[in-house]
Amino acid sequence: MARVVITGMGAIAPNGNGVRNFIDNSFNGKVGIKKISKFDASETGITVAGEIDDFDPQEVIGKKAARRMDLYSQYALQSAIEAMEMADVNENNTHPEDIGVIYGSGIGGLTTIQEQIIKMHEKGPKRVSPMFVPMSIANMAAGNISIHFNTQNICTSIVTACATGTNSIGEAFRQIKEGRAKVMIAGGSEASVNEIGIAGFAALTALSTATDPQKASLPFDKERRGFVLGEGGATLVLEDLEHAQQRGAKILGEVVGYGTTSDAYHITSPDPTGAGAAKAMQLAIDEAGIAPGDVSYINAHGTATHANDEGEAKAINKVFGEDSNVRVSSTKGMTGHLLGAAGAIEAVLTVAALQKGKLPMNIGCFNQDPNCSVNLVTEKNQNALDAHYALSNSFGFGGHNAVLAFKKWE
């Protein structure tokens, strides 16, 4: 079995465009949640979102290519370009048949779907764009990435709601570990901060109705009242260790475990006992060949909903024990919840935490819920020079659980 390392990362998130900005801002506790400006959201009852307001697809992707992509594909391709440039993978050092893509989105081209349905309703079916289908379908982030980089190994998409990004990275890890590829481009993207996206989640009463962006997303807080919808994307370039070393690549970290399970419980609510989430964490730990006590940090799913945070805390305590010193933070207090992209941007931060020896704080928890008894990362305990292993958790509607285990590269 091959060892799998990370040689490139790219990101675009509400609190940082570009992976370096995103990492720096996140470790400084910058909140990227803001008043919704893309449209008038007053009738939805929702005021804030994790909007990206400094993105011009023409700068990286080009005007012609951007016109043929939904916003979610634009986010995906920009982050993939950044990650591949960092990794310096190209046709001179890697054969196209050895490079694959597993990249997903929880919803896909929702902006395009909304625009074209309105156009059909107002102007008739003959006015629907011929690009409607190829722009809106959920596999086209992966397709566009593969076309751009001429990757000829596997190219597929995973849709597991909010676990999409983590499942995509995990399955890409398996492709390399089991010898089917040398390099994999993996991650997730989402662009659902629009009228139908906000209205749909508001109808589920899943979204925070707070009006103060600094106090809208409150993971593990006693007063939490729903998640904040975010948008963006992130990409990891995974690589066979031997291949990376042969070409002199800079190694950022190592993927050492992956666990995925199903709650088989409810279409939107997680199993309140946390059993499925706990099993996924244990599977990732077991594949890594370590014990729970070796894990220093967990990047929690931590959506700031009552059901998720309490269930996830129970799951963590099942695996690590109620008196564990493992430190936990949800970074959704800064970014909001990026749905299918959440696991990807959070994987980037987890790898960065091991690199830096510093953990991202759990921004947004002012009064920790006693029913969420985990050891949250604060300014006082975020230094982690001795951290060698970390987990990143993602749990999605439909009961999808996915967990990645990372190791510090030394």
UniProtKB/TrEMBL annotation:
Similarity field: Belongs to the thiolase-like superfamily. Beta-ketoacyl-ACP synthases family.
Q: Which GO terms describe its molecular function?
A: 3-oxoacyl-[acyl-carrier-protein] synthase activity
Q: Which gene encodes it?
A: fabF
Coiled-coil annotation reads none
Q: Write the protein's name.
A: 3-oxoacyl-[acyl-carrier-protein] synthase 2
Read off the Gene3D superfamilies from this record: 3.40.47.10
The UniProt entry, under SUPFAM superfamilies, shows: Thiolase-like
Record keywords: Signal included? no
